Amino acid sequence: MTETTVESVDTYVDAHEHVTEDIALVVEDTDLPRRLKDRVYDTVDAREGVTTEQADEIAQAVESRYLDTRVDPLDPVGTVSAQSIGEPGTQMTMNTFHYAGVAEMDVTQGLPRLIELVDARKTPDTPIMIVHLDDEHATDRERAHEVVWQLEATKILALGDVSTNVADMLVSIDLNDETLLERWPTYESATEVAGIVADIIEDNLGVETRRTGTEIEFGPEEPSYRELLQLVEQLREIVFKGIEEVTRVVIRKESVDDSDNDEEFVLYTEGSAFADALEIEGVDASRTTCNNIHEIYRTLGVEAARETIINETMETLEEQGLDDVNIRHLMLVSDIMTNRGTVESIGRHGISGSKESVLARAAFEVTVNHLLDAAIHGEADDLNGVIENVIVGKPVAIGTGDVDLRMGAAPSARKSADD
Amino acid sequence: MVDVSQHELVPDHSLLDEPEHVEEVLEEYNVKKTDLPKITRTDPALPDAAEPGDVVRIERDSRTTDTAVVYRLVVDS
C-alpha cells in the first residue's frame, strides 16, 4: 500500500468544503476501499463541523463494519450464491410468453431467460442488439434512419410488387420509386437503384434480367413452371441491403446524462449480428451491445462476455422485481463461467461436468456413465470437495469442518480454580 | 476492423512482460501459474504480443470497488 502523505489527500480536501487535511489523513489511513472512503467524506461534509476526533471515530466504525461484512475464511460462497439466486428464481414468471418489454419488442424474460444465460445457449431465443450511434447520427432522425437501412434486412417484398406471369414464363417486379430512394439515400435517381437491385438478382439467381425504368423482368432459361415458382421463392429470400439476421429495427429517443445533447436516438434490433453491426458507419462501436453472450465473446473477448453475463442476469432479475439479489452472487457465477477463457455453461456439459472428482460428477447427473467411465480409465478421487465427502460420510472441508481444534494438554502455570 | 479495446465492456488488458512481476502475483495469491483464470490466445481483447504461457493483467471497473485487478494466463485455444 502507498504511504498516505499530506499532498496525496489534497484532492479530497479540495473537493469537500468541511473536510480538513487531518480528517482526510485519518480516513485515508483506514483499509476501506475508495468508494467507501468517498462516502465517508460526503457524510462528513454534509454534517458540517465534524472534528478530527469524531471523524476518526466515524472512520474506525465504518472500517470495523466493513471488515465484519467481508466473507469469512472457509465460507461456502458458491452454495450461498446458489441459494441467493435460486430462491428468488422460484418467484419468477415461468411462462414463456413474451411481452412488449422495450419499444414493442419481443424479449424473453424471467426464468426462461435466466436458464438460457446459465446454460450459455449458442443463440438466445430472442436475440436483440442495442445499437448506439455516434455523435453525428445520434441526434438527427434522418441520419439515424440511414443506419437503420444499413442494419435492417431489406427483402424484395419491401421494395415493390412481385407478380408471376405464367403465360410468358416471367417474373416481373414493379419497384416503388420512393422506397428505393429512401433505402438508398446516397443515390439520386430511382432507376439507378433499380439497376443495383437487378444486379443483385442476377448474381443470386443466375438469370438474365431485363429492366425498363424501375420494372425488372426475368424468367427461367427453359420454360418450366416448377423453375419459375422456385425462382420466386428464392427471390423472396434475397437480402438486398442490411444484415440478414436483423429482421426489425426500432428507433427510440433516449435521454443521456453525460453528453451535451440531452437526447439521442438509440436503435433496438430484433435479431443480432454483433460483429457486422459494429463495422457499420454511424454505429458507436464503444457502446453498442447485444444479448448473445457468445457473439460478445467472439468479438470482444472473455472479459466483455463476463460483464455481459452479469449485466444480463441482473437485468433479468430486476425486471421481475428481484433486484435485492446481491450483484456479488452474479459476479461469482459469471467468474466461474468464464474462468477457463471461454464461455462455459453451468451444468453437465460445462462446469459440473468437468470437475476433477469422479464422485462429484456422478452426483450431479448421469451417475452410471460417469462411474463406468471412471472405472474403465482407473480414475482416483482425492475426496477434496464437498459432495464427495458427503457421499463417503466424512466431514466436509468447509467452514468449521475444515478447522481442527485441539485441546491444550500441557499444563501451563498451574493454578487451581479455587484460588 | 473495430478497435475492441475502445468498447466500454472491455477492460484494460496489459501484458506482464517481466518474469519477476509474474512471480510477485503468484506469491501474492499463493497459487501456481496454471491455477490462474485463463484467456485464450485468440481472444480479441488480448494484446498482440501475448503468447501462451504469458500472464495478462486486467484492470476492471468493479461494481463493488473502484477498480479490481485480476490476472489471466494465456493458453492455447
TrEMBL record, chain A:
GO molecular function, one term: DNA binding
InterPro entries: DNA-dir_RpoC_beta_prime (IPR045867), RNA_pol_Rpb1_5 (IPR007081), RPO1C (IPR012757)
Stored PANTHER family: DNA-DIRECTED RNA POLYMERASE (PTHR19376), DNA-DIRECTED RNA POLYMERASE III SUBUNIT RPC1 (PTHR19376:SF32)
UniProt GO BP: DNA-templated transcription
Compartments where located: Cytoplasm
Name the record gives this protein: DNA-directed RNA polymerase subunit Rpo1C
Class in the EC hierarchy, top level: transferase
Pfam families in UniProt: RNA_pol_Rpb1_5
Signal peptide: none
The organism of origin for this protein: Candidatus Halobonum tyrrellensis G22
GO cellular component, one term: DNA-directed RNA polymerase complex
Major localization class: cytoplasm
UniProtKB/TrEMBL annotation, chain B:
Chief location of this protein within or outside the cell: cytoplasm
Molecular functions per Gene Ontology: DNA binding; DNA-directed RNA polymerase activity
Nucleotidyltransferase among keywords: yes
Subunit-level organization: Part of the RNA polymerase complex.
HAMAP family, sorted: RNApol_Rpo5_RPB5 (MF_00025)
Entry's family note: Belongs to the archaeal Rpo5/eukaryotic RPB5 RNA polymerase subunit family.
InterPro entries for the chain: Arch_Rpo5/euc_Rpb5, RNA_pol_subH/Rpb5_C, RPB5-like_sf
Known function: DNA-dependent RNA polymerase (RNAP) catalyzes the transcription of DNA into RNA using the four ribonucleoside triphosphates as substrates.
Catalytic activity: RNA(n) + a ribonucleoside 5'-triphosphate = RNA(n+1) + diphosphate
Gene label: rpoH
Pfam families: RNA_pol_Rpb5_C (PF01191)
GO biological process: transcription by RNA polymerase II; transcription elongation by RNA polymerase I; tRNA transcription by RNA polymerase III
One Gene Ontology CC term in the entry: cytoplasm
Domain RNA polymerase subunit H/Rpb5 C-terminal: 2-74
Protein name: DNA-directed RNA polymerase subunit Rpo5
Source organism of the structure: Candidatus Halobonum tyrrellensis G22
Record Gene3D superfamilies: RPB5-like RNA polymerase subunit
Lineage: Archaea, Methanobacteriati, Methanobacteriota, Stenosarchaea group, Halobacteria
UniProt keyword terms in alphabetical order: Cytoplasm, DNA-directed RNA polymerase, Nucleotidyltransferase, Transcription, Transferase
EC numbers on record: 2.7.7.6
Compartments, as annotated in UniProt: Cytoplasm
